[in-house]
Amino acid sequence: MKEDWISIILEEARSQGLTRQALAFPACGGKIDIDGKEILNFSSNDYLNLAHHPHVVDRSRQALEKYGVGATGSRLVTGTLPIHEELEARIAKEKGYPSALVFGSGYLANAGTIPVLAGRNDTIFADKLVHASMIDACRLSGAKLVRFAHNDFQSLESRLQEFPNLGNRQLILTESVFSMDGDLAPLKEIAALADQYGAMLMVDEAHASGTFGPHGAGLIRECGLENAVTVSMGTMSKAFGGYGGFIACSENLRKLLIQSARAFIFTTAPPPAVIGAALGTLDVLEASPNLGACLQANAAYFRELLQAGGLDTLQSESQIIPVVIGDNKKALAVSQKLREQGIIAAAIRPPTVPSGTARLRLSVSLAHTLDDLERAAELISKAVKNS
User: Fold this and answer.
1) Which stretches in the chain have pLDDT values below 50?
2) Quick one: fold of 54-287?
3) Is the backbone of residue 151 left (phi > 0), alpha (psi -120 to 50) or beta?
4) Using one digit for the tens of pLDDT, what is the confidence trace for 316-343?
5) Residue numbers annotated as active site
6) Tag placement on the chain: N or C end, fewer CB within 10 Å?
7) At what angle do helices 291-308 and 370-385 cross, to 10 degrees?
8) At the topology level of CATH, where does 22-47+291-385 sit?
9) What is the pTM of this model?
């Protein structure tokens, strides 16, 4: 009796085509082998095909052998190792900021940072489509949350005027590359508004780190906005091929986060092998600065093929390419059909995306050849048209 309510919720999700499952796959990356058959995986965030890169794996192995499997303590007790400080120094240099701070995940980076930047008496202005971790962090902060229309800097300005700065802190939140639509934020215009209205600006670069900018330094650095963006947030779990999150910021903000960020203070430090892998990725990006540009060229080609097939890819300008289907059950059916044809293309449904915009979220990886992209575009176009 105590859990009858669970069955009701699960049945409601099933009837709407919103049931979710954690399916086990035998491997990860843009191409995987299942029962001796090569499968094209368009639902992996291993954009640069680095999860199995020999140097990345070797750096991870070296850290594992030197320090063991875990940091065995929180960062403020005994968990900070030289390798953590090395990574933070490398990230700060790469991002063009004075300092950086590593968190256990991207979710924790947002959850730890945003409540320090804004509190109960402050106001946060967030793009309608920012990541769930940012929204959860806003709720944790207790600040007033004001949403503005997606990628609409004029909407942001009207909201800034509607809720003027009365001496308390104001914070603007956006992503640089949006995780479900694959479009790019108008960072220069948003940064100009932040400066004009005296607001801080935090940009989630989870999907831009490694894939845009010099040496994969992200869109903030590509636009030359390091001095205009208060916090550049990123992850090691997308293009870096590993796990973990970080923020790049001023030295003073780093000191404050160490004092106040609960998601940093009250958790064990990231494992050494994870940190070693991230250092290995930075080595690869430094040695091969054009990986992101190659990825974007391939993504543009793939997007053109999908559009030529009559598919709606929204305003995608990145390696993330949505194919909007609309109906939840139809999106699931198309995903299953493609799976039978050797293509993994996950169906993304509400609440991850707005109601009525269920889609395939396609992620291009450097593991995919141009022939792979051509074959996939043909199969995806046929599957959507015949659904």
Assistant:
1) none
2) Aspartate Aminotransferase; domain 2 (3.40.640)
3) left
4) 999 999 999 999 999 999 999 999 999 9
5) 45, 131, 175, 179, 204, 207, 238
6) N
7) 30
8) Aspartate Aminotransferase, domain 1 (3.90.1150)
9) 0.94
